Amino acid sequence: MDVDVGSRFDFSFAGRPLSRRRVQMYGMFEGAWSIAQVCTQIAQHLVDRVGRVGVYSYNGGNFYEPGLYDHAGIDRSAPVGFFYGFPNEVPDLVFDHNVSVGGFVCEAPTIPTSWVDSCNRFDLIVVPSTFCARAFSASGVVAPIMVVPHGLEPGYRPVRGPREDGPFRFFNTFYESSTLARKGVPTLVEAFLDVFGVTGEEAVLVLRTQVSSQLAALRNRYDFGDAIRIQPMFPLAVEEYAAVLSHPDCLVHPSVAEGFGLVPLQALACETPVLATLAGGMVDYLDPTVSLCIEGVDDGGDDLRVALRQMVDDHDRYMLAAAAIGPSVRANHAWPVVLEEFTQTLDGLASRLRRRSMKRYLRDSPLFGQSTAAASRAVPGRQNQART
Q1: Does position 383 have pLDDT exceeding 80, yes or no?
Q2: CATH code where residue 308 lies
Q3: Which of helix, strand or coil describes residue 83?
Q4: What pLDDT is stored for residue 366 in this prediction?
Q5: How far is residue 119's CA from residue 89's CA, in Å, rounded to a whole number?
Q6: What is the tens place of the pLDDT at every residue in 7-37?
Q7: Residue 107 has pLDDT above 60, yes or no
Q8: Number of structural domains found in the chain
Q9: Taking a C-beta distance cutoff of 8 angstroms, is the pair 117, 141 a contact?
Q10: Of 297, 317, 332, which closes a domain?
């Protein structure tokens, strides 16, 4: 996730009482962060698939999607409790449900011990990438792990206008300046200026973010000249954001760490060429035959410098590749597709009347075995079997 919202709110778990719900979801639905958008998509598809679902926003405020108000509240007797957020924020009431499911993400090869203790109370853990599956397992999580990728809304598609004359346009977006280093932005700025200079005649780099003291410090350190431009960030509808992603000549995303890394996938759906690091969850979907991929920026950005130059020189090839793969990205990574197995799993759990029957379903269901296959492959030699 782009921000650690865990330190910003006083969390509450006292919602209006609901009854006869099959699944109760607790998540962070308020705000424009990526976690709110992910929670919203999962909740909407659970409602469509399972029907009677309770949805509770434990960070308060308004739902990212107002339609979820019809399902807002808590049914403590729902057979399945599903928490999506951070492991250090899980309340005990989640474990009062017959079966508990936790949805989490991480951006480091290991997770804190306190997270491990919380995760091992769950009957099932859901993560968005094989990178996260490895990290949770390597840290001592013994609960079964199911990989459920993040997906795309239907509005992510090319929005092309006439090609404007002018310099080559690189684009990078990140939510908060506190994530500058993790998103590789200082290295990107230095590499870009080394390759193209400050005039902006051959290429420009647009940074879409919030203005902050960290960003000001970066500007004081480097002369942006006319080559690096700041685009203020504010909430956009999906279709508007798709137009933003369709406009550049290249989305450059040199992150050091990503739990999933949704922005490059969104750009590919808009058929915009991508230059990115093979970091974290992005390894699951980036294809080096389509996108310009580098291993990382630990070398001080030398590979990034070469890649920036290559993207400009070979842009026609990457444009054709992005256009060719766009339809399959939109089809294969749509939210209904990536959530199908997971929603089937929760639906199957909710159909069992007793806790023992639900645990047996987790252990024996062929569907569950298929769903955890990716996690099992992510952790060589480890079988993600359900607890009994």
Answers
A1: no
A2: 3.40.50.2000
A3: strand
A4: 53
A5: 11
A6: 344 567 777 899 999 999 999 887 656 788 8
A7: yes
A8: 2
A9: no
A10: 332
DSSP annotation string for 290-346: TSEEES-STTSSHHHHHHHHHHHHTHHHHHHHHHHHHHHHHHHTBHHHHTHHHHHHH
Q: Are strands 145-147 and 124-127 parallel, antiparallel or unpaired?
A: parallel
Residue 150 identity (one-letter amino acid): H
CA dihedral 100, 103, 107, 109 (to 10 degrees): 40
Specify whether 249 is located in the same domain as 372: no
Whether 388 maps to a domain, the answer reads no
Q: 384 in a domain, yes or no?
A: no
Q: Whole domain around residue 226: which residue ranges?
A: 168-332
Tell me: do 278 and 312 sit in the same domain.
yes
Contact 308, 253 (CB under 8 A): no
User: CA dist 122 to 12, 92, 95, 249, 291, Å?
Assistant: 20, 11, 8, 44, 37
Same-domain check for residues 176 and 324: yes
Read off the CATH number of the domain in which 78 is found. 3.40.50
Query: Which amino acid is it at 93?
Result: L
**C-alpha dihedral sign at 7, 213, 274, 164:** positive
Is the same domain home to 174 and 246?
A: yes
pTM of the predicted structure, to 2 decimals: 0.88
Q: Which residue bears the tokens 């569907």? A: 367
264 in a structural domain: yes
With contact defined as beta carbons under 8 Å apart, do 101 and 44 qualify? no
